[in-house]
Records
---
Amino acid sequence: MNRVRLVAIAILMTLALAVVAQEAHHGQSAHGGMPSADQHLKILSEKLNLTPDQQAKAKPIIEQMTNGAQKAMNDQSVSQEERMQKAHAVMQAADKKLREILTDEQKTKLDEMESQMRSEHSKPQQ
């Protein structure tokens, strides 16, 4: 189950990256790459209909996740696999914290989004 959650988090981050890349292509984002905490919060707010209170609580969680994942991925003292593992651990911890502030309905919607992303990610590329 942990492996499934890890894959789901990775896929969620990939979706966020794709959205940011698309925004950058349309001139809405100043840079590509990993979404900023604000961009990630915007995406989650729109997809999960977060309240202003939830957004305020989610922002430091997302900032910590973004900074931690970026730091892990930039750590050249370890292998690529270890960098990925560290980044996934950071993202998994953030996912757990974020779920604490979500309603049951939002958790269900997040689960559905993750499930959809897993199925899209597992389709063969053409």
Note: The chain has one domain: 2-122.
---
Amino acid sequence: MTLVIGDRQLSSWSLRPWLVLRHLGLPFSELVLPLDTPRFHAEIDRWSPSGRVPVLLHGAQRVWDSLAICEYANELAHGAGWPADPAARALARSVSAEMHADFAALRALWPMQAASRGLEVPLDSAARTDVARIEAIWSECRATYGGDGPWLFGAHYSIADAMYAPVVLRFASYGATLSPTGTDYVVEVLADAHLRDWIRGAEQELAARQALPAAR
């Protein structure tokens, strides 16, 4: 399998299925197309019917859209991407779909910059409402299912955790003020070895960019 992704620093949608594939132990290679570059525009239509990343290539199969790729990976892993309990699985799918479709105000004001810290961008009322809703989701999941482990649904990492990982990076980059539950969850997610690998890749991208000669 090959996962076509954008920059690690910027591509929140690429991060989500990348984490799911890593956590499910499904081997894959990567093809990185830096966003908004001549290379991206020259190559993306070869891989993605939507003209966007990510897209998963598996034999003759192409799967685009982050959540669709996560569901495809879940099927390859015999359902290991979602909680085993039906009620937990329904909630996990619901909060994942909400993340997929909502929170536009937060996304607009706090775009993901995976390796950056100390950014200062004030939130407007709509974005603050988004943050409050995300915290409510995390609190519900942790209170109901988090008793036996650090993730939203307990001991096992799920697609829901991957869907909210870019939000965790946003909160870390921009210094969000969170409840104790939210803060604890952010700490756990940032300590995840796979997410640390992604952040290291983003740091390498930034270093390479800074090493380029200045345009004249």
Note: Residues 135 and 175 are 15 Å apart (CA to CA).
---
Amino acid sequence: MLDIVRKALLAGLGAQERAKEFVDELVKKGELSQSDAAKLMNEVMSKAEKSGEEIDKKIGEIVEKTLVKLNLTGKRDIEKLERTIQELSNRVKTMEESR
């Protein structure tokens, strides 16, 4: 799965680079002004960022579902256990000190 994600990200970066080259070419030909080019690239970058966030979210959901199916503990479970252990340790320490 990591390979698929890596390929998707690299494809996205390649697409952004091609978009920039395309816009630069339009500016050179005089078909697009510098300010319009900047606006267009900002729009492309914004959409790419949103797409990246959506991909991150989807990947997170897939990983979470996979962990559930595999019955593996996740980071949240481990953090919850760590908090519980810390609370119990504090209680034991308090009880020992009160003796």
Note: Residues 2-70 form one domain.
---
Amino acid sequence: MKINTHFDVNRELCGRPVRIEKDYSVIELNTTQAMIVDSSGLIHGGFLFGSADYAAMLAVNHPNVVLGAADVQFLKPLKLHDVFYAEASVIARKGKKRTVSVSGRVKATEIFKGTFTCLILEEPLLTPEK
């Protein structure tokens, strides 16, 4: 399926799409040294959130989709060299609003879960400056 949104996202920071279908996506995030917060190799939670958000946006896959709200839980730590997979599914539709469930895993262990409220706008939120 063709990607219709978030064309310029930094895939090193937010992950790489590995599967995109109608109302569904999977993102793979390879953790790097630049993401750690301490000497134990703990990865900053913002990178998990960014990957999960990107997965939600691709599950909706509309050019004008934006995040309206998120309710998330960080269940276990993500460490340097872990590969994080964010799997997103649209679970509800109401007008221009989409509710997306995202599960984040390392191997078979769920380490993140959340519900993202995505809004489809009539026009882009921002327009390029000229």
Note: The chain has two helices and six strands.
